[in-house]
Amino acid sequence: MRAFYTDHFVLPLPPGHRFPMRKYSELRERVLTEVPGLAMHEAPRADDQALLLAHGLDYVQAVSAGLLDPARQREIGFPWSPEMVERSRRSAGATMAACEAAMTDGIAVNLAGGTHHAYADKGAGFCVFNDAAIASRWMQRQPGRVPAEFPVAIIDLDVHQGNGTASILRDDASVFTLSVHGEKNYPFRKEASDLDVGLHDGCGDHDYLEALTGALDILAGRFKPSLIIYLAGADPHEGDRLGRLKLTMAGLAARDQQVFDFAYQRRIPIAVTMAGGYGNNIDDTVAVHAQTVALAARHAQRWAARDKAATASISFPLSA
């Protein structure tokens, strides 16, 4: 399974900054030792042409040149730096690359990404460019694919609603946006996804998985995607300081497996991004993300085995 990383593009954050930047390097180190068969690739850089599929020109130029006003920079949550721009471009590029790889391999992973709070004209909540929206539209514009023939579903299971994604793709019938999130959590002003499922504070494994089952059933009834982009946030975990939900490690494994089974049963390629995770103990967050990658690798093996079996079942007539 191919995995795309950006953790060597580290932002120069001030001491005490609450964003857990080191989780990405720790995740890469952990999955390299624990998940066999990973093929690691440095994330490509999303160029302006790709970013403009989801963002306005003025915003892209202002971010790139460090010309955002202080209020808009504060809303992103990171101080501006060339490293911030480079990492944000690479994070979007990693999701684009994971989508393309998934079309061949069945599944691929971005070891970052999930920047779903970024709007067309502004960033927010540690999100600069919206990788899922960019990758959706970029994939639809690849040779042989047009929006009407290549529908994309974004399954967003970060604990926070994907407001930026919903806003950017609101009028785009070729992309279905599904968000399962904490109803009273950030962002406090929600946008309308194609399907929103808001959960109560303290929601545990049983209620969460029941809600997810219902949401996936609705998705299957309304939309037939050719690709899924899955935001596998670690922040629904019971140890997350910002999550306010109570999912256990076993519950999060069942969540991931439910999404992978949904894709497998329908033969839909799936690109996975890590999205949020802010554990009181950073090791917990890394463990949740690593579990997702391990389950994704198992899904890749299952996909490959089915391909092999299908190939073996083809009979060829004897030549005369």
From TrEMBL:
Residues 27-282 form the Histone deacetylase domain. The keyword Hydrolase applies. InterPro entries: HDAC_classIV (IPR044150), HDACs (IPR000286), His_deacetylse_dom (IPR023801), His_deacetylse_dom_sf (IPR037138), Ureohydrolase_dom_sf (IPR023696). Belongs to the histone deacetylase family. The gene is acuC. This is Acetoin utilization protein AcuC. CDD domains: HDAC_classIV (cd09993). Keywords: Hydrolase.
